[in-house]
Amino acid sequence: MTLMKDIKVSKVVLNIGLGKNVDRLDSAMILAERLTECKPVKTLASRKAKTFKIGRGRVIGVKVTMRGPKSLDFLKKLFLAKGNTIKKSSFDREGNFNFGFEEYLEIPGVKYDPSIGIMGFNISVTLERSGFRIKRRKIQKRKIPMSHRISGDESIEFIKNKFGLEIV
């Protein structure tokens, strides 16, 4: 395999959705910071949703984006909590995958905190190859060619080889 075809983990995003429970914002911020040891950011609603009684610009969650070796260590800890298995349905066609936890207590080494209560979260992992910067740069943006994109099968193989996971 050539150097340009090597797949790597671009970023890992931890997301705690609050919905209507905005009063739990402080505990979600504390939980996100304890789990990742990074500063969390509030997520805002981008549009109005009358059915959920959410207005535009209202706080609906908390997220932390991690990159580099710190994200890989965090990801290994989360895979261990999942029993080193991930569902095949968690992968999309672009090579990214998501999984979640109903309670933060499932992670080894994390103890229950009564001030936080029981709270779940989602993890989104973005994979990329060298050269993917062309879709994010400001000058002369380009689309990633089909031959260079990451397929779902390629991402599954990468995760199996890199982290030793079992896909069910």
Describe the structure.
Helix content is 22%, strand content 24%. With 168 residues, the chain is an alpha+beta fold. The mean pLDDT is 87. It contains three helices and seven strands, in the order βαββαβββαβ. The relative contact order is 0.22. It has a single domain, classed as Ribosomal protein L5 (50s Ribosomal Protein L5, Chain: A), CATH 3.30.1440. A five-stranded antiparallel β-sheet has the order 2-3-1-6-5, covered by helices on one side.
Main structural class: alpha+beta
Q: How many strands appear in the DSSP assignment?
A: 7
Largest sheet: 5 strands, antiparallel
Overall average residue pLDDT = 87
Low-confidence runs of at least 5 consecutive residues:
none
The separation of the N and C termini measures 26 Å
User: What is Rg?
Assistant: 18 Å
Give the total of domains.
Answer: 1
User: Helicity level, as a percent range?
Assistant: 10-25%
CATH architecture: 2-Layer Sandwich
The third-level CATH topology is 50s Ribosomal Protein L5, Chain: A
Give the strand order, joined by hyphens, for the main sheet.
2-3-1-6-5
Order of helices and strands: EHEEHEEEHE
Inertia-based shape: globular
CATH classification, class level = Alpha Beta
Provide the CATH superfamily.
Answer: Ribosomal protein L5
Beta-strand residue percentage: 15-25%
| Count of separate DSSP helical elements | 3
